[in-house]
Automatic annotation (TrEMBL):
Keyword Repeat: yes
Pfam families the UniProt entry points to: WD40 (PF00400)
Protein name (Swiss-Prot/TrEMBL): WD repeat domain 13
The UniProt record lists the keyword Endoplasmic reticulum: no
SMART domains from the UniProt entry: WD40
Organism listed in the record: Hucho hucho
InterPro entries tied to this protein: WD40/YVTN_repeat-like_dom_sf, WD40_repeat_CS, WD40_repeat_dom_sf, WD40_rpt, WD_repeat-ST_regulator
Coiled coil: none
Intervals holding WD repeats: 121-162, 356-392
Keyword terms of this UniProt record: Repeat, WD repeat
GO molecular function, one term: promoter-specific chromatin binding
GO cellular component: nucleus
Length: 392
């Protein structure tokens, strides 16, 4: 019996990893790469291990697991200007950043009592549309409608480098390639391009055209496939050459003609029960969409959808970063009805796990810290709310 439990605990120790959100981690990416190569889609992990894991975790439901004690803090430094994106630093509990249409970004620390604004990043001459933390959290890269990409020191807020778009187009979104120093940037002239942030130069062969303005992007965990969404309702997959940074078009899916693809989030495992590479999509169709990735070229197949109010605002959603020991798996999304919704993606009916109310405008983005003890949400009025999970 002791030998059996040692085997179970050893397996759980190996599988207890944080699943990457934006800005994947190399160890997790290598793990997922091996799994991607060795297991067919939908292949099960040993169910005896999963049952033992749930037994150790207790009998709490997903609804109980994602119960919140209420608001921990409210930030209002960007009041009267929308906060379109916010993101906790990689593997960090207390460092949070957000960008604003008032042309600035903020880095906030939640460790202090009360939480406070650590530094405000000033320099853009237009609305800041997106940003990304580097793997080590020492820099943030931001994009703006002023046509520039800026690299910031997160400790003192200095702008280390400014990179201007050669075509002077608005820069609308960005994301790091999980395994190297390359950043992919999308602009208003339908162009997706790979930039080396060490040099500030575009990578040869690392650009491609979409059918519309590039609004959202996400890599799979190994960094082999990039999905990009535009304002005409299309999602294109690209194969990324790890050695050269070259992009090769693979597949195209029209989600809904003319409906902007506001958010794309990739995940290799939905739950501990089975590998199921998936994309979570916000597409202005009054639904949150979950697609299954069915092959190595990023082909998508609709798995399920969840009703939310979403007709025009640039809403975003995330997979919960921790794979639960419990039955089910959660995603979180903003909504135009000023609420934050939690859905169990494995339920066919009554999928809402929780609903948070407190914002006074459409909730544009949400982000969990690494251990899911805190959730941050941002809205169109510039308010950022920090929610604290109930301690079990």
């Amino acid at each position: 019996m002791a030998a059996v439990w040692q085997q179970v605990l050893a397996v759980d120790a190996r599988t207890l990893r944080r699943t990457p959100v934006r800005g994947s981690y190399q160890l997790q990416a290598q793990m997922n790469r091996a799994v991607y190569d060795e297991r067919p889609s939908g292949a099960l992990v040993p169910t005896s291990v999963a049952e033992a894991s749930r037994a150790m975790a207790g009998d709490t439901t997903l609804s109980e697991n994602y119960a919140f004690a209420g608001m921990h803090h409210i930030f209002d430094q960007h009041v009267d200007a929308a906060v379109p994106r916010l993101q906790f630093a990689n593997d960090d509990k207390h460092l949070l950043a957000c960008c604003s249409l008032d042309s600035t970004l903020s880095i906030m620390t939640l460790f202090s009592s009360p939480p406070s604004v650590k530094v405000i990043l000033k320099g853009h001459a237009g609305p800041v549309t997106d940003f990304a933390w580097s793997l080590s959290n020492d820099v943030i890269v931001s994009t703006s409608k002023d046509g520039t990409l800026r690299i910031w020191n997160t400790e003192d807020g200095r702008c280390i480098r400014e990179v201007r778009d050669p075509e002077a187009s608005e820069l609308l979104c960005c994301t790091f390639q999980p395994m190297n120093n390359n950043l992919t940037v999308g602009n208003s002239k339908h162009l997706l391009q790979v930039v080396n942030i060490s040099t500030g130069k575009k990578v040869k062969g690392g650009s491609s055209k979409l059918t519309g303005r590039v609004l959202s992007m996400s890599f799979d965990a190994p960094g082999r496939i990039l999905w990009a969404g535009d304002d005409r309702g299309s999602i294109l997959s690209f194969l990324f050459d790890m050695a050269t940074g070259k992009l090769t078009k693979a597949k195209r899916l029209v989600v809904s003609e003319g409906s902007p693809i506001c958010s794309i989030s990739a995940r290799s495992w939905i739950s501990r029960e089975a590998r199921d590479p998936s994309l979570l999509i916000n597409a202005c169709v009054n639904k949150l969409l979950l697609y299954r990735v069915v092959d190595n070229e990023g082909t998508l197949q609709l798995k399920t959808s969840f009703p939310i109010k979403h007709g025009s605002q640039p809403l975003h959603s995330i997979f919960c970063p921790l794979m639960s020991f419990r039955q089910g798996a959660c995603v979180v999304t903003g909504s135009e009805d000023a609420c934050v919704y939690f859905f169990d993606v494995e339920r066919n009916t009554k999928a809402i796990v929780n609903k948070l109310q407190g914002h006074s405008g459409p909730v544009l983005d949400v982000s969990f810290n690494c251990d899911e003890s805190l959730l941050a949400s941002a809205d169109s009025t510039g308010m950022v709310i920090i929610w604290r999970r109930e301690q079990k």
